[in-house]
Amino acid sequence: MVEDKSYLEKNIDKYGTIEHTKLFNDIYPHREGTISAVDGGDINKFTDSGMDFNLNDYLLPGVTAKLHFNSGDLGGYEFEVYSYNNATKEFTIIAFTDEQGYDMPNDTLKPAIGDKYVLLDIEMPQTYIDTAETNLQAKAQAYLDDNCNPRVNYLLVPDWRYFKTNSIALNLGDSITIEDTDLSINSLVRIVELTKILINAYKYTLKLSDHLETQLIQRLYSEQEGLKEKIEVGDVGDIIRARRSWRTSEELRTMVFDTDGYFNMGNIRPASVETGMLSVGAKSTQFILKEIQIEANYTGDESKFHASAGELIHLSIADEIRTWTLSENTQDSLVDATAYCIYAKCTKESAYTGQILADETQRKFDDDPTYYYFLIGVLHSVVDGVRGISLTYGQTIINGKFIETGSITADRLNISNVADIGNIILGNTGYIRTTDKDDYADETAGLWLGYDVDKYKLNIGSAANWLKWDGSSLQIKGRLSVGGGTSEDIWFEDSSIRLYDYGIGGGAGSKGISFKYSTLDFAAFYYYGAGAQTTMQLKGGLTGYTILIDLAAYTQLQKSDGSNITALKLYPAGANGTFYLYGTGQLQLPNLASNPTADLAAGQLAIVGNVLKIYDGASWSNV
Fold this sequence. Notes:
Distance between the termini: 90 Å
Shape: extended
Number of strands: 45
Radius of gyration: 40 Å
Oligomer: single chain
CATH class of the largest domain: Mainly Beta
Number of helices: 5
Strand content: 35-45%
Strand order of the largest sheet: 1-9-4-5-6-3-2
CATH architecture of the largest domain: Sandwich
Largest sheet: 7 strands, antiparallel
Number of domains: 6
CATH topology of the largest domain: Immunoglobulin-like
Helix content: 10-25%
């Protein structure tokens, strides 16, 4: 490692500087833990006796720690950590319900002894960071050592007479010493390719290389291994869902058919397609479903299918846009091993009614004389006790760098573009949301961002803690942290007043907040703990004056240089005069015209007509 620089270098005196970046995604600060015991009475609890730091000390502000299982029945699943007991090394994770309706963990899929896991969304201890940095440097150095010299190939035709005189026979894999002064190479180089003339056993053409070129089968294997490595490095995700997704995708592929009778499927079987534009979707599937809910596994029963009432708005079946009113439909007794097509069965004649149904027969959309059968998608056969749905209606157009479609479903969507900086542009009524957070008002944990009713709104969080923007105001339930830098502000635009972190200069231990207008600190509150003193300070708008309030002892008014003022003047609301408290000890009461008649209590003093009086609980008398 070059001192004070974050890069390695070698052989620059021979070949100059050639910059290269190499990523080692398998090296980062982390700890892979192993479950040593489970709680027999609570599947959400388990113990890792090898846990070597207190998780509670490394939580990030406002972020819930996550626990990701690398192996076992829960391999690929990720859970929020509810609590960690450092004394017993016991974790408690938060159960959740996945998108298929499974409670995780459950009696079948639950933590077990020997399961591997990693902790996410925490600040790792410095020892793990140091170890990762050391390992990263070692691996980078090994990579540099292996690549710091040019990888060159040599094509040679040796002197066959010399070979014959000295009875030299060569084979693939043998090494020959090569001296190359231009590249400062003097080393044994392997024969990777050999051609020998049949009529002269000593006449060779040799190809030598200081590195082996992978052959086809080696490349295929390496690519497969690289793919596996990328899967391990990335987020494995929901393994069970991925398996179901593969199964349903294969089933969907076998069930795709030509609803319009337009294509000859035998004519297109290329290894690759090169075209200016690709349009996917049939004319009959160019429709919109409005206020429709399609449910597999209805009421938790995989043999039932349900479609709600709503509308189908077709864009291309006629010259004008046509709308069908669909009635509710429920089907039962579906066969587990059978996959069904989902159709909107719609009348060809007015009054344009219909309903959505599941049918195992593949139908062209207009073969029936009375009804259109508009293909919506596929209701898959049962996998792991669950029946999935794949929707196929609509159209996708791919033209150059643009994709126009209705819905994209992916385990992970990576949007990056140098020109557009990875922009996501929503329509006037579009939204972005997490699973099960259906609208702005939904209290399900997650994120919802988009247009709701009449404004653009944001809801991040759950029923317990959230941040909401309702289009005109920001609401926060939970802790709001402002800090981590210098002069952090909360700015009130209309009044130009700032509320910001402020440590008033009263010595070590002072912490506070200040109100500032322009450059004037007109009020500040701070806690000051120095030794045994605990003080709160209110800094007034009068330049040079401060009110000190000792929570245990006194209230004091003094100048900012610490000297006492000469007098304190008080103006009580509704009072008939002014009270003066002088620095020399005198208290001056206002001179009243008559005895007070309200707020009376025994022991009160008052000056009436220049005479000092006392109230005994019943009447005023001269002192």
